[in-house]
Amino acid sequence: MAALRVPLVDLQAQYRSLKPEIMEAFGEVLDEMQLFLGPRTRAFEQQFASYCECLYGVGVSSGTDALVLALRACDIGPGDEVITVSNTFIATVEAIAMVGARPVFVDVDPITYLMDWRQLEGVLSEHTKAILPVHLYGHAAEMGPIMEFARAHDLRVIEDASQAHGATYNGRRVGSFGDVGCFSLYYSKNLGAFGEAGICTTNNEELAERLRMVRDHGSRVRYQHEVIGGNYRLDELQAAVLLLKMPYLEQWNQARQQHARFYTERLGDIVAQVPQFRPWATHVYCYYVVQVEGRDEFRMSLEHEGIGTNVHYPVPLHLQPACAKYGYTRGMLPVTEAASERIVSLPMYPELTAEQLELVVMTVQKALLAGAHQA
Ligand SMILES: *Cc1c(COP(=O)(O)O)cnc(C)c1O
C-alpha cells in the first residue's frame, strides 16, 4: 500500500522543524560526555516541575518506570491494592504488578472515558493503599472528588499523566494533585524525547528524595546504597532534547486544541460521539478519539484512503490474558467494554496542515456515508 497521506502521528514533521537545534544540543552533550544526570537533566526537571506547578521533578527512564518508582516511593507493595481503570495503556497496570501489588478496577464515565469516582467506595477494602487515576487522551480526571475520597480513607494518589502534559483541572495542572504525578516522555506523547524517557512530579520533598534514590541504585552518595533501587535514570541526550522542546509545549498543545475544534465542528453531527470536555478541564488531545458504528470497517476504509487511525485501546486490560489472574470477566466493567468496541483515534499532532485536516474530515464523511448507504 502507498504511504499514508495523513499518518496518525508524524514524528518527522516535528523533527524537521527543530533539526539544527537538536543536532547542536546532541553535539554539546557528546562534547562534554556527561551522559547521565547532568546539568540538562537538572534544568529539565526544574522547568517541567514548575510548568506542572510542582516543586520537584525527577527525570526517569520511561513513563512505565515513573509509575513503578512512584509506587515504590509510596511504599506500595505485596498485599496492597491500587484502584485504577481498565481503559488505559498496559503500563498503568504493569507498574502496580511490578511492585507486587494488585490492581482493582473501577469503570469510567461514558462521556469522558475517565475514572468514575462514584465507584471508589464500592471497591474500597482494608488492603486499599492508593488510587491511580489516568488522565486519558489528554483530559484531566476529576481530581477534586478523587482527592477528597483519598484523604477521607488515608490513601495515596498517583496520577498517570502520560497523555496529559499541560492539561488542567480547575485551572491547575495535572501531576500536581496527587502524591506523585507520572509522565511518559515517549516520542509520540505531547512532549517526547527521541527514545525512552519519563518524569515524576511532586510537591513532597521526602518523596522527591526517595524517587531520586530509587532511580539511581538507592544512593544519594555514590557506592552508598541506603535502599534497594535500580537503574531508572534519564539520560542526558534525552534531557537535552526535552529541554529544547519544553518552550514549545504550550503552542503545540494549542495547535492540538485548534485541530480538535476543527474536527469537532465538522464531524460532530456525523460520528456517534466526538470528544467531550468538562467545564473544569482543559483537554490537550494526546489522542482525538471518536466513536463510530462499524468501527473496524470504518478504519479499513480510512486506511484505504491513506488516513492513519488507531484504537486506544481495543481490549480493556481486565480482559487481557496478562490480567486473567485478577479474576475479572466480561460484563464487569460495561462502560469500558462498550467503548472499546466503538472508539477510534484520528490523526492528531501539532504539525497537521489545513489540507490534511480537510482531507481527514472529507474521508471520514465519505466512509460513514458509504457505510450508511450499505446498511
Ligand atoms: C505511554 C503511556 C505509559 C507508558 O509510558 P512509556 O514511556 O512508554 O513507558 C503509561 N501510561 C499511559 C496512560 C501511557 O499513555
TrEMBL record:
The entry's active site is 189
Q: Which UniProt keywords apply?
A: Aminotransferase, Pyridoxal phosphate, Transferase
Q: Which GO terms describe its molecular function?
A: pyridoxal phosphate binding; transaminase activity
- What biological processes does GO assign it? polysaccharide biosynthetic process
Q: What is this protein called?
A: Glutamine--scyllo-inositol aminotransferase
Q: Which family does it belong to?
A: Belongs to the DegT/DnrJ/EryC1 family.
Where N6-(pyridoxal phosphate)lysine occurs, residue numbers? 189
PANTHER family reported in the protein's UniProt record: 3-OXO-GLUCOSE-6-PHOSPHATE:GLUTAMATE AMINOTRANSFERASE, TRANSAMINASE
Q: Which InterPro entries match?
A: DegT/StrS_aminotransferase, PyrdxlP-dep_Trfase, PyrdxlP-dep_Trfase_major, PyrdxlP-dep_Trfase_small
